[in-house]
Amino acid sequence: MLMDKTICIVADNSGVKKFRVFKVLGRGPKKAARIAGIVIGSAIEVIPESPIKKKSVLKGIIVRTKAPIKRKNGTTVRFDDNAVVILGADEGTIRATRIIGPVAREIRSKGYKKIISLAKEII
């Protein structure tokens, strides 16, 4: 679960390395985002010559969390890091052409088929 001021790595090749969450969208009073949740944040570390500049405000979708995910079949999955994928101008698209690392299966049920097709491993 990601909350405000959480620092995540970016799991794509958009040019951003680290991302700081400062707003969780679509949650009630609990204000914690889970897998496939949309967050707004800023780029705190970018690679040189990146089209995205440092401190720019971006939207992202969460693809991995350290918090365990309980599935309906009784299994529990957790990842080693918190990771997001940077979204494009409209929420249906992503800016990157590659996804780095595994992606949770729950992304598919939210309708982000592009992320699933670019990911090498789906857990």
Low-confidence stretches: none
CATH architecture: Beta Barrel
H/E element sequence? EEEEEEEHH
Strand order of the largest sheet: 1-2-3-4-7
Number of strands: 7
Question: Please, how many domains?
Answer: 1
CATH topology: Ribosomal Protein L14
List keywords for this structure.
123 residues, mainly beta, Ribosomal Protein L14, 5-stranded mixed beta barrel, two-stranded antiparallel sheet, 7 strands, 8% helix, 31% strand, globular
List the SSEs and their pairings:
Layout: E1 7-10, E2 16-24, E3 38-46, E4 57-64, E5 69-70, E6 76-77, E7 83-86, H1 106-109, H2 113-118
Describe the structure.
Binds to 23S rRNA. Forms part of two intersubunit bridges in the 70S ribosome. GO terms for molecular function: large ribosomal subunit rRNA binding; structural constituent of ribosome. Part of the 50S ribosomal subunit. Forms a cluster with proteins L3 and L19. In the 70S ribosome, L14 and L19 interact and together make contacts with the 16S rRNA in bridges B5 and B8. It holds the Pfam family Ribosomal_L14. Belongs to the universal ribosomal protein uL14 family. The protein has helices at 106-109, 113-118; strands at 7-10, 16-24, 38-46, 57-64, 69-70, 76-77, 83-86. The protein has 123 residues and is mostly beta strands. It has a single domain (7-118), classed as Ribosomal Protein L14, CATH 2.40.150.20. The strands form two sheets. It has a five-stranded mixed β-barrel with strand order 1-2-3-4-7. Strands 5-6 form a two-stranded antiparallel ribbon. It starts with 6 loop residues before the first strand and ends in a 5-residue tail after the last helix.
